[in-house]
Amino acid sequence: MNYFPDEVIEHIFDFISSHKDRNSISLVSKSWHKIERCSRKRVFIGNCYAINPERLIQRFPSLRSLTLKGKPHFADFNLVPHEWGGFVHPWIVALAKARVGLEELRLKRMVVSDESLELLSRSFSSFKSLVLVSCEGFTTDGLASVAANCRHLRELDLQENEIDDHRGQWLNCFPESSTALTSLNFSCLKGETNLAALERLVARSPNLESLKVNRAVPLDALTRLMSCAPQLVDLGVGSYENEPDQESFMKLMAAIKKCTELRSLSGFSEVAPLCLTAFYPICQNLTSLNLSYAAEIQGNHLIRFIQFCKRLQRLWILDSIGDKGLEVVASTCKELQELRVFPSDLHDEEDNDTAVTEIGLVAISAGCPKLHSILYFCKQMTNAALITVAKNCPNFIRFRLCILEPNKPDHTTSQSLDEGFGAIVQACKGLRRLSVSGLLTDKVFLYIGMYAEQLEMLSIAFAGDTDKGMLYVLNGCKKMRKLEIRDSPFGNAALLADVDKYRTMRSLWMSSCEVTLGGCKRLARNAPWLNVEIINENENNDVMERNEEDEREKVDRLYLYRTVVGARKDAPPCVTIL
Amino acid sequence: MENVGVCDEFVNLKATELRLGLPGTEDGGEEERQKVSCCKSNKRAFPETEKDIESTGKTKPASPPKAQIVGWPPVRSYRKNNIQTKKNESEGQGMYVKVSMDGAPYLRKIDLTVYKQYPELMKSLENMFKFSVGEYCERERYKGSEFVPTYEDKDGDWMLVGDVPWEMFVSSCKRLRIMKGSEAKGLGCGV
Lengths: 578, 191
Known about the structure:
By secondary structure, chain A is an alpha/beta fold. The radius of gyration of chain A is 25 Å and the shape is globular. In chain B, the strands form 2 sheets. Chain B has a 5-stranded mixed beta sheet with strand order 2-1-7-5-6, sandwiched between helices.
């Protein structure tokens, strides 16, 4: 029973924006469910195949902002076939047909076509914001339609997408009347950019706060851009491998000095050291710095730069910074919250003494008390270091450690890293995301199951000894949502032990493990509310037609997820849905 | 958690039994001591490693070959591609490799991308070092010369120049070495 009229309740709900909270509200009563769903503006769908667009629209007719995620996370590492799925087109078609007043669309790991973008641009007159992360399937022609037709476009943010650059004039397609841009990111485009069109666009966008250009924007153009947009807060620069001459350098520095609002800096797919120094004047204001694409720049230049960045909260860097560099970060960046250290040598070709080790990690943990999120690629690790890190930083929410060599033990004791990771999960009571690596037995999973009470996402590779490992996790981690496992000896016993567990999870990925076709088939029979997808290496469609003996055959890749709409119809031949 | 009440070829009930002890204690230990390989299929590039957690002293697990494992390290393709192009382009728009010749006092560097095929490359090397390699033929390799051009490939192996298609050579060649004399005989003649 409601004590207030519906409009009042709705008004109160307006203050509640978190998806989780909104979901909770809708469970209170039928009345609240109705009020909530009719007033909900923003919807987040973590797996685009868990629901379909028609049901989405039916439940949330006032939808304004939609976030969709498609391919599973391991698609980032080429473990999912290109044609697996995650097409946004049917969503746009349905939303257009239902005349939903869509204003914002955020997609991650989805397949987007030019046709989809064209339809999008023509169907939603109030469309304001398009954010595409790790998507593919479209070209600059699609961008041209968005630029041309979305009259109220404020945000066009393209992060790490594979875009076919037709080197057309998509930037020219923004009409002269378009002055509302607040955010423009085309850093992932590989081709030439129409500099004149870009400069005109930036000049007529007084509200532009975030600008990230691609590699093809040279230094003098950057200088001009910064000069006419001193209000920028977030800047992504291009590629500057050649040292600028004196005059260009002075002009650049002058333009940079004017950008007093600048807080975030990225890009730098190549940067000559002198060029980097032009940014010194604004270093002290930076809260976010991404130099993780600057493969050629040497550690000492990076260190010199970072020494000025005392307010840094977020740092993405390459391991060329070295342990010494991380020690500098630890003593300089006391506000640091998030650190990502990426590998610069991906094929282990060089005997790299300057890469980072456990020493750098310990230094950071000791020096940066606010650190809560880390992604760290390194060549070696020790239990002692991890135990120290856990003691120093009990506030980790995200802890992702990737030791480059699979199965590598503690390099001082040759033991597994069970104790080190055990210390992390025991100390970090708020840990939500964890990636483990190195030599690990079932014991580490016992620890994880026992202590990682808030853990929502766990990534396992080359770890564990028996099914018990996976069972410890499934039984212990009550809040687990996404579990992804590769090259680990977990099989049917673990997979089938508690089928209902998968009701509480978004998805499970297992590749190169011990699960067999028979085990997967049984799971699919016992859980009709799951889509159990088998992805084969060869595009073999006749999995079902093989005789019984093949039930013992191991499944190469298994991806299962809960869904309310049954098996999807758009699976390619290499995917079998049991 | 309920156990699946079946014990058959798919489900090994004993494996699901969770006891209060840590793995490696009492009769849980026997299972642990078995050599476990997570990669039995020969599709995977990764060899078996012995995980003996009861061991005292240092165990030395076989170090894995530096073969590329699919999707490892877990770095996004976008990022991998960007770093790659960097490494290639940083060679100054070319593929410069060092060339050494046995007996020569110093090395040279050449840009492989300026050549279209082997004969051009050989001619250039001959000019550079003032020698002759003779004729290359499938059966007898480099006939009529005491010099044999070899190269080090991505895996660190020394190969005879000319065996693989040109493009494959350019993409895998890390350095060149012109061998001379008796060392050359093994490679050069009718292998």
